[in-house]
Fold:
Amino acid sequence: MRTLPLLLVLLMADSTPAAQPLIVAHRGASHDAPENTLAAFKLAWEQGADAIEGDFYLTKDGKIICTHDKDMKRLAGSDAVVAKSTFDDLRKLDVGSWKDAKFAAQRMPSLKEVMATVPAGKQIFIEIKCGPEIVPVLNEELQASSLQPEQTVIIAFSAQVIAACKKAMPNRKAHWLTSYKQDKETKAWSPSLESILRTLKDTKADGLDTNAHAIIDAPFVKVLRAAKLEFHCWTVDDPAVARRFIELGADSITTNRPAWLREKIKS
Structure:
């Protein structure tokens, strides 16, 4: 049998296209509809998203509600603090008009309602915005859901939350979230790769969900892959940045504009 020259084999290998990452709709299709509302999540599916991402808190009366901020000043002009308010009181707030008057009927959905929008074969990234106190309720709701374990991914900036989720729900994927800060004097970035790996190991996380920072490079990703960890990034509305993270092999790219970004990275 004739063997191909080594150089030709390498060239053929280099020409293999990178696997396309999942496109995750950040707080739904939040560029076009009010974030974390059923309108935004349903629009994300219409726009062909592979997954949606939403933010969740535990209310005063022990229910899980979908919203990003600790209080409702930005979205509803209210002084209500989510953790100190009941689910029913929070549901009275209009969280759509700030985007456009046509969304005035939008209310904060429950986790159950958001999960009910997820089609077969699609996923939901559940970002926990509070502490580990939410985990028992979250576990119950996920078990009661018709979604399969592989359709749900838990994400959080809190290492405590990730550790608690993996302990209570080892069959559910959980990724630790991080962003980066640079020391003004030393110019060093934190957390370091070593610190990140230590946190991922200690929490038993399945992967890292990092903001799409310029410090992320191929050696960084190689170390994650060697540790058998997943690699996800957020929030990308720039096609050039998206292409860079595709080349780096990201498992998913979170964006406010799922249909638009998918079209742009094709060209």
Summary: Confidence is low (pLDDT under 50) at residues 1-17. Residues 94 and 203 are 37 Å apart (CA to CA). The longest strand covers residues 51-58. DSSP finds eleven helices and eleven strands in the chain.
